[in-house]
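Structure tokens please, single chain.
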Amino acid sequence: MNRHHLFSRIGKRYWLLPSLLFALSGALVGCQAQESNTAAVTPQESPIHTPAPAQQGAPLVTGLPDFTKLVDYVSPAVVNIRVSEKVSAQQGMDLRGHPICMIWPDLPGCSGRAAPNAGGNAPTEREAGQGSGFITSQDGYVLTNHHVINGASSITVALPDNREFKAQVIGSDARTDVALLKIDATNLPFLRMADSNKLKVGEWVVAAGSPFGLKNTITAGVVSAKGRSLPQENFVPFIQTDVAINPGNSGGPLFNLKGEVIGINSQIYSQTGGFMGLSFAIPIDVAMDVQSQLKAHGRVQRGRIGVVIQEVSRELADGFRLDKPVGALVSSVEKGGPADRAGLEQGDIVLRFDGRPVGVSGDLPRLVGSTRPGSRVPVQVWRKGSQREMQVVVAELPDDKPRKPVLPMARPEVSPNKLGIVVADPSVQQRRDSRLASGGVVVEALRSPSARASEIQAGDAILAIVNRGVRTDLRSAEQFGRVVAALDPGQAVTLLVQRGDTQTFVPVRTLER
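Here you go.
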């Protein structure tokens, strides 16, 4: 992610200071409608269907929706969430972003300096921010975002009728950014859930929440896309909308025109920290599965099969003799893991999992993650020009572990070759640190754009070359030189590259004469 492309969880700190938006991470809000005056779209038999002469030129959409009945129907179940955190006497009060700093910017705490804590040595609580949520049952279960309540010492849920309740955290799941709260109340208004699989691109949707702490705020727009994969988000096929979402909308519902919840607003794309027309919601089907597991176990169980995957580009598809770029390319297999025991190999392309197609690589983590640990499922793969099927027993996904550092940079030397990549044999220390005992060469420098510097870096290890579907494992820099020297000018090949514990297939092309 670079500084021009920011996916932000617009989270807890909502203070009314525009410049603070750069520091915010956040979420989205949503709300739905019960009725609409929108005219139906005229159906067509196919994209190339020509209307009858009398219909030509007639508008496909007439009128605009009236959201008033929808808002009256859903608003009683949309809540404001305030979170507090404990502050030590030494820490003092951080006032950055508070409206008072707009009047007295030199006040201690406004510029990062801690304001004195008047409470003596005893720890105190301060409000850490606000978000949104919605009631899912009459006995007081509330859904919101994980990032809204994460790290809070106390949580207050405020209803539209001005009643307030202290909330208990039933469970929270960072991977989907969903949290389940419980308040001690009965006979509460609650919302109905939609089937988010039936949602259509172009459909009107409505969000409700508390942007910047402004309670009971309604915004509307349309569904821009479905099944979006975002950076570092492997388990959620996000709903993209153009509904205005800002800090404080985090955890609020996104509604269809029937007044049913179709998603939980969670993230925005922004170059400024504020709304730019790209908002992302967690499909309610995903959220409700998380809610049921949090109710039953207090945590979420997910499947894993022990592979690292990557997208199949047109170039990679050609290199593996696949007709079109589909599926998930297995770049490494965990030794002794479920996939290894089932017979999956590095270089396999997973086409179907448990009978469901894997159109793009991002489909596989969602399919595997939603499979209960212990399940035995069929997996269809593409290997060496043909399809194969095997059975894998899904294991449970553990907590995230920090990645190991990348391979240390090697000694600069050697001349470039047809790929423009300078390589050398790894040192004894590099072989030990990066488990290269069986082979591989170290990248020392890049001398050509064809090396795709964004995907290959100095310090990486190249383990193999795949040429026209045939893989050659590398044992030495001398062998690498001989293999590359035999390639034709402008020829496309695929390199298996290791960086740290991660292995990736990278398509490259030799230099033209």
